[in-house]
């Protein structure tokens, strides 16, 4: 009888370890968290779906959390994942500064954390970053804008959430290029928070002022599509060109139709695969580079068929 009791206790100990150690569930599959800043546009949805596909290929479970563009909410979600013993946390930050406490907490808890698509101010607090160089993306977009408008005219910028890594980097890239083009004037520069509806309203207001814009340059495709609708509704597409970033499905369709002048791909699927792979390796005690960068690609009507 004593031998049987000892065997039962040993089995219970093994099961307990499988459930609570390293974020594993009862079936022994590691559980990981993906913290999205929000899920309100095509890019974030595409990114989260791509990460889920990568997790499935790697044989691990992924739980996606929607931060709703609320830093406090995202911090709370990270803390919840820490308390539940997730094996690793992949985070697309809602803020480059505000998310620092959550990243610090995860590090102290010994849970690997990887930031994706956007860096944080104290990036060294995370184990790795996977994404693109946003300045490069902005430069690629603006180079094509300059070419398309002949190096002169009044233009407007639709910005992402102020202070976000994508907004800062891409806008910096715009101005890097514009230094060599004094005949291009930026007359409007406002944030639409990555949102199509906000961009639509801003663009409508700009068009009503009577300022003769030749281009609207957006930090992402969601905002570009809002601007496109405003311009088309005003029957001014022959005068104003629209540009975006992300290569979302609706933007690619608009490029193919000749309605959107260009978009810039930031290799969403490649980011997702590299990030999930890095996180799993870290959770398994393997070393990964602290920074994994993928490239951008300009997409115009000439090459859009390759991306659809």
Structural class estimated from helices and strands: alpha/beta
| Helix segment tally | 10
Beta-strand portion reads 15-25%
Q: How many strand elements?
A: 12
CATH class of the largest domain: Alpha Beta
Describe the structure.
This protein is α/β, with parallel strands linked by helices and 308 residues long. The chain folds into two domains: 2-132 and 267-294, Response regulator (Rossmann fold, 3-Layer(aba) Sandwich), CATH 3.40.50.2300; 134-265, Response regulator (Rossmann fold). The chain is 44% helix and 19% strand. It contains ten helices and twelve strands. It has helices spanning 2-20, 42-58, 71-83, 100-108, 134-148, 165-178, 196-208, 221-233, 249-256, 268-283; strands at 31-36, 61-66, 88-91, 113-116, 128-131, 153-159, 184-191, 213-218, 241-243, 263-265, 291-293, 297-299. Strands 2-1-3-4-5-11 form a six-stranded parallel β-sheet, with helices on both faces. Strand 8 (213-218), helix 8 and strand 9 form a beta-alpha-beta unit. Helix 2 packs across helix 10 (268-283), helix 3 (71-83) packs parallel to helix 4 and helix 7 (196-208) packs across helix 8. The radius of gyration is 22 Å and the shape is elongated. Mean pLDDT is 91; it is low at 1-22.
